[in-house]
Specification:
Length: 201
């Protein structure tokens, strides 16, 4: 066997891990990632609690001024996705489709969460925010056929689409994922630029 073949064989043996080691590594990954899911639970509890408070103390379409000329709490029911897009307007079929799409998206994000390396903290935080927000809105859609929104930012006569805590968490999570993608792209580009150019022999 040639020296190169010996080196490749040795490297392959070094990279091979036993089933016990692989199982221990998976358990370690799960222990770390469960901590990030605490953030998802916090988002879910805060989202459901604030919606319950609005539903209990503010009638539908009623508004409460919080910060003059900037922020109201306005109780509305959103039958679409975040920020009122693709509203089903109470149509049962449309609501079912949006519910199934939301469930499929949640399953995909959850699966992706478990694939992410445990040392990629920014991405795990981003996915935990998305998971917590997605579950919060999905619960509303299943239980009530629509999502309770109440955060109403406005300036003069212009009002931004009313939203809730879950929408906020999802938006922040997606934003962090996009920033992370740009950051990794920049790091890869810097690594390629800093890689020494082989000199001809």
């Amino acid at each position: 066997m040639t020296p190169n073949a010996d080196a490749l064989s040795s490297a392959a043996q070094t990279e091979t891990i036993s089933p016990q080691e692989e199982r221990a590594q998976r358990l370690a990954d799960m222990r770390v990632k469960w901590r990030y899911l605490i953030l998802a639970v916090v988002v879910l509890v805060l989202d459901q609690w604030t919606k319950w408070m609005i539903e209990s103390h503010l009638s539908r379409h009623a508004s409460m001024e919080i910060i003059p000329q900037l922020l109201n709490f306005t109780h509305v029911r959103n039958t679409g996705v975040a920020f009122g897009f693709f509203a089903s307007y109470g149509n049962a079929t449309g609501t079912l489709v949006l519910t199934l799409l939301g469930l499929a998206a949640l399953i995909f994000v959850g699966y992706y969460f478990w694939l992410v390396p445990r040392n990629d903290r920014p991405l795990l935080v981003a996915l935990a925010l998305v998971i917590g927000g997605a579950i919060g809105n999905l619960i509303d859609r299943i239980m009530q056929g629509g999502v309770t929104d109440f955060i109403d930012f406005y300036r003069g006569t212009y009002h931004w689409h009313t939203f809730n805590i879950a929408d906020t968490a999802i938006s922040i999570g997606i934003g962090l994922m996009i920033l992370g993608t740009f950051r990794r792209t920049d790091e890869n580009a810097e690594a390629v630029e800093s890689k020494p150019t082989p000199t001809p022999s």
